[in-house]
Amino acid sequence: MAGRRASSQLDNKSCQCYYLLVLGIHVIDDPAAATVALEPMRSRLLSELAVPASAATLATRVGLARQKVNYHVHALEAHGLVRLAQKRKWGGLTERLLVATAASYVVSPSALGPVAADPDREIDRLSASYLIALGARVVREVGDLVRRATATGKRLATLAVDTEIRFRSAADRAAFSRELAEAVTRLVGKYHDASAPGGRAHRLMVVAYPLPQKSDRKEPL
Questions:
Q1: What gap in Å lies between CA 102 and CA 22, rounded to an integer?
Q2: Is residue 17 within 8 Å of residue 157, measured between CB atoms?
Q3: Does the residue 41 lie in any domain?
Q4: Whole-prediction pTM value?
């Protein structure tokens, strides 16, 4: 019964090939574009442009003059964060409707240049800093793969498994970690072939950390 409950929690498992032109997340790796996107008003405008809107409509929503909205929107457009959705004519005027290029955005660590988090510089592989650096590398590498695949019109195969597990004790947590490491080592040994013609290397990571609490209830780390 416990095994069935644990397996039923794997409700976020996915192993899919995505058409990247409709990917909902855009990874920003250009420092200038990151600066533009992080400015509070421009970030607000990006959220408002989840659906096409004109500068006049945006001005009403955010409480700015249309000229100021145009200034911010032009900066977003110049860095590829918004694009023209359509043009429509009102009398003798042409109105531009713009839309965000993605549903949401992530700033890649590569935008920070040489100070970006890098797991190769971390010594303690059991530290939280190392885990953060691994996450940063995932954003950087997958973001780059997404751009390349989009440019060539290809699909990107990905695998993600996300679940939760509550350990009865620190001893159980240690035992689980040991068994998981053994299982991953066994599977890697079974399927890894360094000399396979046409094969492609993949990066595999398994991470775990305490689930952030949604209340004031205290639990041991």
A1: 8
A2: yes
A3: yes
A4: 0.74
**What distance in Å separates the CA atoms of residue 44 and residue 85, rounded to the nearest whole number?**
18
Residue 40: inside a domain? yes
Q: How many domains does the chain have?
A: 1
Q: At what angle do helices 40-48 and 31-38 cross, to 10 degrees?
A: 80
- Is position 166 within any domain? no
The pLDDT tens digits for 63-79 are: 999 999 999 999 999 99
**pLDDT tens digits for 69-128?**
999 999 999 999 999 999 888 777 888 999 999 999 999 999 999 888 888 886 788 888
Question: Which pair of structure tokens corresponds to residue 137?
Answer: 């590398």
Query: Is 64 a member of any domain?
Result: yes
> Residue-wise over 173-207: b if at least 16 C-beta within 10 A, else e?
eeeeeeeeeeeeeeeeeeeeeeeeeeeeeeeeeee
CB burial string 135-164: b at 16+ within 10 A, e below? ebbebbebbebbeebeeeeeebeeeeeeee
